Amino acid sequence: MRPGQDIPGAPVKGLRARLQNFSIVSLRDLVVATGPTILMVAAAVVLAYWWVDPAPPRTLRLATGQENSAYEQFGKQYASVLARDDIKVTLSGTLGSQDNLQQLLAGQADVAFVQSGSTDDKTGNADSVERRGLVSLGSLFTEPVWLFVRDEAKVTRLPDLRGKRINLGPEGTGVPRLVRQLLDANNIAPGALTISDLANTPATVELLAGRIDGLVFSSAPEAPLIQMLLQTPGIRLFDFSQAEAYTRRLPFLTHVVLPRGIVDLGRNIPNQDYHLIAPTATLVAREEIHPALVGLLVKAATEIHGGAGWFQQQGQFPSPKYTEIPVAPEAARYYRDGPPFMQRYMRFWLANLAERLWVVVVALTALLIPLSKIVPPIYVWRVRSRVYRWYGELRAIEQSLEESGADATDAVRKELLGRLDGLEDRVNHISVPLAYADELYRLRSHIHLVRERVRGVHEEQAAQPLA
């Protein structure tokens, strides 16, 4: 056995364990002293989590558009982007802008794509919809009016549509109203042409089969049907050569140009610049949408629509401009200042929690300052009380000695000495941190002092007969 090595089972090991116990801070007393404070703070945080500002919902209903439309394609992109932050987007296929607007007003959708010029009612009062609890999250992209006609129709100006078979799509798309406004600007009565209301896909089939002379879309160029018709022989895109005049007559329209060769540079498609008129697609939400979701939707819109395109420059969209509906304050703040500070460095849900509870954290910090001054005295009192509570019994023994006085019998003195031995034995098993060991040793010295007094009385009585 090496020098200095402890012998298994030796008393040294037990002594070391006892010394270690004395040197450890009293965790039990610390927990008891701080427990009420911790529970109170935790309860306040939990209460604030549910009461200060409800957490944003994890589901969102987005009204998109017809099959194979740009609205449908963009809706899928929004669902994919928001899924990264655990937001499930339920896509609702609709007829288009007017249908989306009605779903928003009826509470069947939370967010929807709405085309500019669609928010006025039949009386032409655009403010009527704005006052019905809808807010804009910004304009997203221009939606050119695409009038595709067969070559043999020989349509070069809108008045040439008289007598032609033209599909405008269902009423819910918003296109019929827009085209009627264009026809009215040209003094063309709707009855002067044969109008059908087929959806985009079946209308395209009818156009390719020659059963109609033309069809009208209002969509972003990303729509698959637009891409296909721009490259289909025998189908020609109508050139709005008077586009600037149309934008002056109908202020919600803008003049855009489809550049020559933008579809296919190698095949020079299209073979000329086309002037188009374009409303603007807007992301519209119900007024009660959670503020945190507004920022998340604008962030998604920036990722999806922020690049350069056929009709837009880098960073032009999304934008708080070009919208007829008032922009939500949270969206306007995002456009002005960018994403909230915490969302720049944290995931959405963690940042949202911190943003919702920061007021509570400040209040709790102010509460913890006085509480932190209360906890240490409570801890000290609990540790010292382990020692001080034995002074009551020690004082009772001393009082019994004083009451018996000089006439105390041997039995009384033995009983007092036995009580002192029992008290000392129990005190020896008290465990206190070393910082408070002086209190323990002081108690033990006081026990010894009382014992000496008892023994002193006994010795005095034993010496009296000798005197």
**Helix-strand topology string:** HHEHEHEHEEEHEHEHEHEEEHHHHH
Number of domains: 3
Distance, first to last CA: 63 Å
In DSSP terms (H or I, runs of 4 or more residues), the helix count works out at 14
CATH hierarchy: architecture of the largest domain: 3-Layer(aba) Sandwich
Structural class: alpha/beta
Calculate the mean pLDDT score and round it. Answer: 83
State which percent range the strand residues make up.
Answer: 5-15%
Radius of gyration equals 43 Å
The CATH top-level class label of the largest domain = Alpha Beta
Helix content range = 40-55%
Task: Kindly report the CATH topology of the largest domain.
Answer: D-Maltodextrin-Binding Protein, domain 2
Residue windows where pLDDT falls under 50 for at least 5 positions: 121-126
The largest beta-sheet arranges its strands as 2-1-3-12-4
Largest sheet data:
5 strands, mixed
CATH homologous superfamily title of the largest domain: Periplasmic binding protein-like II
Number of strands: 12
* Shape, per Cα inertia axes: rod-shaped
Transmembrane segments: 30-52, 357-381
Protein name: TRAP transporter TAXI family solute receptor
Pfam families: NMT1_3
Keywords: Membrane, Receptor, Transmembrane, Transmembrane helix
